[in-house]
Every structure is written in structure tokens, then in C-alpha cells.
Amino acid sequence: MKVPQEAVQACKAAQSVVLLTHVQPDGDGLGSVAALGLGLRKLGKKAWASLPELPRTLEFLGLAALKLPAAETGPFDLAISLDVPNPARLKGQSELLKASRQVLVLDHHFDSQPFGTVNWLDPQAAATGEMTDALLKALGVELDAAMATGIYTALVTDTGSFRYSNTQPGTLRLAAELLEAGVRPYEVSRELFDSANLSTLRLHGAALARIELKAEGKVGLLSLPLQVLKDCGALEEECEGLVNLARSIRGVEAAVFLREASDGSLKLSLRSKGKVDVQAVAARFGGGGHKAAAGATLKGDLNAMAETVVKALDEKLSEAGGRGPETD
Ligand SMILES: [Mn+2]
After folding, report:
1. Long-range contacts: 110-116, Cβ < 8 Å, 24+?
2. Residue 323 has pLDDT above 70, yes or no
């Protein structure tokens, strides 16, 4: 992976750095923030992480030590935006961009916008963590176990535990290297997958009971009223991964997860098994993402919008030939 020289230079020149990732942060965003933050500190820089939200399942990344204190408002030499396709996904953190002399954008989304003063966008990367690792190497940082755990968490998260189509030979080579640097994969798995709250399990139960098959079984639909979340005593962040329940059904080519959010909007997540480009569908609703995973924020009635999204997907599937007989 080739790291642009301007990205390396921007990091080298900066003394004070603030790291950011998207709202509803995931293991790729926060794993990258943790690894790069720790690496920049190792180089003697003042590095902070902007952490408006820190999901419990990702507390093990050691981010608390990097948390930007409220009193620290800048100016910063450099802001580094990790895994953020556009500034809207930064929400309340945009002030930190303005408080920084330079902004380095590092992202692997298909529809990334170059909103930095230096932009490194690589949709071929399986995870932003892969790019973060390359940047750390270019900076001459030797990864310790904590940094390696951040990168490994990023890879595990964005490749679905090395199961998705973005898993390349290089991804597994990097994973092996990270294990040699001290990552204990069973510990990461335990934190990510075997530390659920009872409320999350109750939510999964309720969600499973609501899954419907649409478009002759090619689309798995899960629509979730806010009340279901409340009944389970679950938080919105516990909806992470629910879309995969609908995706996991045999014959399903694309999964739709649409839920009512507490702010009155509808949150849409789309997943594809490869035949249909869900990013193109999300884009029709003002969202974005990747070919296999995309999302959007919608307005309107839950059931009506679910039907609209299913129809759009069904059309895409017909175009893609996904509705025809299997050829492979
Ligand atoms: Mn990512």
C-alpha cells in the first residue's frame, strides 16, 4: 500500500494532533484512532482523540487515555479524520476541523469526499485500519501490542471477521503480522462478540421475530419501531450488526435494516452478498457507503419507507440479474 508523501509529511510536521472518526463509531474508526493516537504519542507528539461516543464493546481499545480534554480546544497543528466519508458524518466535531491548521482525511469508503487539506482516499483498502497501519509504518513507528490491537479490531470489524469480499491476501498477511506484534485474537473476539448485554440479546430476539422475506426471497427486511428498542431496554448503539441477521438467510442477496431513531428520523442500513451494489441504492436516498455495505438517514413512515427501499433494491437486483437463475 502506497502512502502519499503529503500525508506522511503532514504528520511529521505536526506537534499537536486531534483524531476524529464518524458518529456511531465502529471498530474500524475507533481502532484506527487508537492505533494512530498511540503511535503519534510514541513519536513525542501531543495527540488527542475526539470521543463524543465510546461504545462499551470498544472500551478495551484503551481510548480513555487519549480522550481530548474539554479544556483543549486548540488550535491544533493537524486534525486527522479517520473512516469518515464526508463532513456530515462528523456532526458536532466539525469545530475541531476549523480549529486545526491542516486536515488530513484518511478513508476507504467508495463515495469519500476530499474535505481535508490533504486527502488520502483508497476504496481498495479493506478497512481504514489498513491505511492507518501503512501510515504508521511510513512514519517509522514500530507497532506495540496496543496499537496492533487497534488495527486488528479495525480489520475484524470491516471484514466481518475476515468473511467479506474485501478480505484480500494482504489483509490476512497484515493480520498475521499484528498477531506477531502481540494481538491476542481470542481476547479481541471476546470483547467484540462475547460480551453482549442481556438487552442486546433480547433485542436480537425481537428483531429475528420481525424479519420478513421480500422480492421472492432475495431481500431480507428488518424494520424496527423505536418501541421495540424501549421494550428490550436497549440503546440505539445496540442495533449495530442487526442488519446481518437479515443478511444471513440462504437465498437472500440483500438485507435492509430500517429503524426509527430517537431523533425522529429513520436509519437505513443495507448489506449485499455481492450481486447488487447497495451503495447505489443508498445514494438514491441521500446516503452512501460501499458496494456491500451502505446506509442513509430517511424521513417518513417506517412501513412505507421500508416498502420504498425494498422496491428500489428489487429493481437493482433485476438489473444486476440477481433475480434470475443461479449460474454458479
Ligand atoms: Mn471502515
Report:
1. 110/279, 110/288, 110/289, 110/290, 110/291, 111/85, 111/86, 111/279, 111/283, 111/288, 111/289, 112/85, 112/86, 113/85, 113/86, 113/87, 115/81, 115/86, 115/87, 116/81
2. no
